[in-house]
Amino acid sequence: MSSGVHRRLGLPVLVVLALTLTACGADADGGDADSAQADSTTLAAPAQQTSIGDLAAPAQSAPAGSSPAGSDDDAASDTGPTASESETAGPAHSVPVPGLKQEYADQIPQETSQVLVATSPDPKSEESTLSFYRFEDEEWTKLKTFSTHNGSNGWLKDRHEGDRTTPIGVFTLSDAGGYRPDPGTELPYTQDDHLPSSATVAYGPDYASVFDYIIAIDYNRVPGNPPTDTTRPLGWDKGGGIWLHLDHDSGTNGCVTLEESDLKWLLRTIDLDAHPRIAMGPEDELKK
What we know:
alpha/beta; eleven-stranded mixed sheet; two-stranded parallel sheet
């Protein structure tokens, strides 16, 4: 397992308030019981959570000094590597992840031994599943499958700011964070005590716990920064702040959401030395 765990200092309150608006909403606390449908382990059912409605964040606005959405400056350019260039380097894995189409299986590098697959039968659905695969003894084993939510307008390859879709593709997982202390993850973890107050300002008093735990999906972001970092190499129009975070029983602005116990299991299981990837999209696009 990687030993390079570190913790970053929280951002100033005003900066956090602004950054929080760029991310999907999250859900309140849950119990520690595992709600995953285990493929190799029998798991206890989670404590029931009260639905608090659609917490998807409001449409994001460009920061001061940025180009207007839709301008030439927002298109993928020399501002940074494209998603495919930065996230799929290296030769394809010698053993394809079960069920993935060749296009997506080829984007899993040889060095990767942990892969998450988020998908749903209907490309317009906001309900999905997330499966965790581990490569060991020359084969992929599905460890768990979780019930999840994704964008309220489903999945889209060419997504844009505010369209409430989850991006289709293969992405790295490199950074985590949240209001609550590090639950024992190998990912660099940024704890920020200001997140409850920023969530309350953004969403109201019922949403103080929305950012308890976060795993950043490296869609249109620079790995190695806190999940709240707003740098967007592909331009502002492509959206950003796509996270794995706590579920709120409804569709999101683009994130994928899980029960707290499930997200904590992922945080404790994902290993940077495994070069983890997440493949996301509807079944007719992602799977054979």
